[in-house]
Predict the structure.
Amino acid sequence: MSFRREKHVPRGGPNGGDGGNGGNVILVAKEGLKTLYDCQERHYFKAKRGAHGSGNNRHGKNGEDLYIPLPLGTVVTDGDTGQQLADLTRPDVEFLVAKGGKGGRGNTAFKSSTNKAPRNAEPGELGESKMLRLKLKILADGALVGLPNAGKSSLISAISAAQPKIADYPFTTKEPNLGTINTDNIFSFTMADIPGLVEGAHSGRGLGLKFLQHIQRAKVFVLVLDVSDSAPVPAIEAVETLMLEMGHFDATLPGRVRFSVANKIDLECSETTLAALREFCLSRGILNFELSALTGDGIEPFLKALSKAMSAREVRIAD
Ligand SMILES: Nc1nc2c(ncn2[C@@H]2O[C@H](COP(=O)(O)OP(=O)(O)OP(=O)(O)O)[C@@H](O)[C@H]2O)c(=O)[nH]1
Ligand SMILES: [Mg+2]
């Protein structure tokens, strides 16, 4: 509330300006971001408040909007109601998640023919505040699934430019890796390599199942199996475990397994194991490829078949 006070201007009238609006909180998907780590460290996000209006009919400055950059594929739900608010699948598209409060009106706004000197002003409104739950579901076209140490990361580095950590111990991969495969100049697709699954993952064993949510939207799944004689788990048993664990997470996943990779054939492998796996896969409509992610042997036919499946329309599943 303010009144004009000036020499030779008696009863200058009201001149209290309106308050500025509060800033909005806006979510925006950014291509370069890979994880939600930033939001793990910082929990509370607040846009700037609007400034007060002042005399001379000066409007308060609007509060600055706050932009929260998130990785592509982040699903945002309301933490209180569980309702999905946004699915940030496109880069740079903004989503207004909490609107800033409207600034109040100064006493000038209340001037009328009957009230020439209003002594009232209106307080600003509170901005929205929300509890959000963020979930990252990487946007990969296909995904490699396997027991720990089977050679998933080796395979993704063999077929794409991705350079994940590869080591001779289980659970080397702790975060999903994404690789892009360019089959020719016009068609490319992405494959995700996720941490190894183990039997009982659905009840929290190993790194659990939480990584499957990343690849839930993948159209094609590839099972990566260690078929060497020194494999800790026989290949067929590995397939059954993987299918079971995937099914526990989402019953539609096992149906999307189109390929299996019998990896590490450069090592000693028993022909009986290989033959049994071939037959097993055949009976389930899974295409089996024998290869070595390490030497590159057999990669080419696998990549060809995978690319073909990726470009085929019929494998595109609804979201
Ligand atoms: N001889 C041989 N070794 C391989 C092959 N593929 C992978 N390896 C080795 O197997 C070990 C595990 O490979 P990774 O690619 O890290 O396996 P991963 O499935 O990503 O393992 P996690 O991320 O721990 O689940 C490494 O020592 C690799 O060098 C292969 O075709 N032949
Ligand atoms: Mg790995």
Summary: The pocket of magnesium ion (ligand 2) is lined by residues 152-153, 164, 172-173, 193 (CB under 6 Å).
